[in-house]
Amino acid sequence: MHALRLYLTGDVAIERGETLLSQAQLGTRQARLVFVRLAIDHSRLVARQALADVLWGDGAPEGWDVTLSAVISRLRSVIKRLDAPGFVVESEHGGYRLQLPSQAWLDVEAATNAIDEAEGALRRRDYRSAWSAANVAVVVARRGLLLDEDGAGIAAQRARVRSLLRRGLVCLSTVSAQSGESEVAVQHAIEAVGVDRFNESAYRHLMETHQRAGNRGDALRVYAGLRELLRDELGTSPSPDTESVYLSILRA
């Protein structure tokens, strides 16, 4: 039996054997949004209101529940075309649940498992395994989740994928540094900061990577840039952990 493969990052698609349902074949934009929201939390109940937030945010039209039911019906029709046992959208207690076959593969789930494996390998100092697993996570997460959508209802899901990318890049940077590839390590660390410009752990990693590469001045400039960003955008200062890294570099 052909395994089911779900692609949520990049162009949304469903694959089973030689059959590939492209993003366009999933139907309307609404069907695509609902599918991604259900798939990323598959096997868990997603409330109807949560799906309404994904589709309309705070501007849900009158009678939105009827429209949502129609979107679910359309989605079920598309899924049925794959003839994949166990692949269904269930209705339950004011919400919906997407069930997947036991052998189904989901790109976001694969990336999550890969980054957990990579970070575990780093703790064991198994740098080859860490590099391999981190690359899997980075390749998936770089594709992004619903990048053409601005709705707040999908923001948390998109942030989850960005977090996977940041963690994967930090792993690649760490392995590169251990392998003596200082410039590559710095490049990965810079990209990790760019993924989430308010994540201080990424800045600390970049500062430490610069320091290990002998770029003390660059490390101090990273701190100065972060301090300015936090002050201007959030009205805060770097955390004690970040301050500690800065002071250790300053005194080195």
Structural description of this entry:
By secondary structure, the protein is an alpha+beta fold. It folds into two domains: 4-103, Winged helix-like DNA-binding domain superfamily/Winged helix DNA-binding domain (Arc Repressor Mutant, subunit A); 106-251, Tetratricopeptide repeat domain (Serine Threonine Protein Phosphatase 5, Tetratricopeptide repeat), CATH 1.25.40. The chain is built from ten helices and seven strands. It has helices spanning 29-40, 48-56, 64-80, 107-123, 127-141, 155-178, 182-195, 200-212, 216-234, 240-251, and strands at 4-7, 13-16, 19-21, 46-47, 88-92, 95-99, 105-106. The strands form two sheets. The protein has a four-stranded mixed beta sheet. It has a three-stranded antiparallel beta sheet with strand order 4-6-5. A hairpin with a 2-residue loop joins strand 5 (88-92) and strand 6. It is globular, with a radius of gyration of 21 Å. The model has no long low-confidence stretch (mean pLDDT 93).
Q: What is the end-to-end distance?
A: 60 Å
Please work out how many helical segments DSSP would assign. 10
Strand-pairing-aware structural class = alpha+beta
Instruction: Work out the number of β strands.
Output: 7
Strand content: 5-15%
What is the CATH domain class of the largest domain?
Answer: Mainly Alpha
Shape: globular
Output the keywords.
252 residues; Arc Repressor Mutant, subunit A; Serine Threonine Protein Phosphatase 5, Tetratricopeptide repeat; 4-stranded mixed beta sheet; 7 strands; 60% helix
